[in-house]
């Protein structure tokens, strides 16, 4: 698959943290994503009280929306600032605790217990730490992962999914030679080879 000049592009954790510090977060949507609303039935599949995972969650407003519907939401994000802004912007009280299995990681959990956000690298997570999920909302995660890390990302995501879980994935389509990313261009053929 031709992903042009993007193949070797690497965005470091420091660069992501700087984007949050500088409020250079054009990827954050103040309103819930229309595609999640449109395909919510596919994600939920008639089920209630699901565990839903938000990889590279930032301060996605959809986390509160799904939690308010009675689902349990788990997110992961390297920027502690993003996670604290999420709780502040929704006036949600939370507590913070270390994650013993991951050096330097924290878990910020809403007092109500239905939103748990991990502040660490997604690659430090495993199902033994966060459990498995009935649904995944991937809007801005796969397209933000460095192209060379996509295989490890997809393999990890597969290990975090329950047997009958739903995975909603949003990608962007454009000429990868005209924009260096992120968001990165992920061709349909690569999505099929990553997730089967």
From TrEMBL:
Please give the family membership noted in the entry. Answer: Belongs to the class I-like SAM-binding methyltransferase superfamily. TPMT family.
Gene Ontology CC: one annotated term: cytoplasm
Pfam annotation, one family? TPMT
Q: What is its main location?
A: cytoplasm
Q: Name one GO biological process term.
A: methylation
PROSITE patterns per the UniProt record, alphabetical: SAM_MT_TPMT (PS51585)
**Which is an annotated GO molecular function term of this record?**
thiopurine S-methyltransferase activity
SUPFAM superfamilies registered for this protein in UniProt = S-adenosyl-L-methionine-dependent methyltransferases (SSF53335)
- This protein's source sits in the domain of life called Eukaryota
**What does the UniProt keyword field contain?**
Cytoplasm, Methyltransferase, S-adenosyl-L-methionine, Transferase
Q: Which reaction does it catalyse?
A: S-adenosyl-L-methionine + a thiopurine = S-adenosyl-L-homocysteine + a thiopurine S-methylether
Please report the name of this protein according to its UniProt entry. thiopurine S-methyltransferase
UniProt binding sites for S-adenosyl-L-methionine? 16-27, 56, 77, 121-122, 139
Compartments, as annotated in UniProt:
Cytoplasm
Question: Which InterPro entries does the protein's record reference?
Answer: SAM-dependent_MTases_sf, Thiopurine_S-MeTrfase, TPMT
Could you say which EC number(s) this protein's record lists? 2.1.1.67
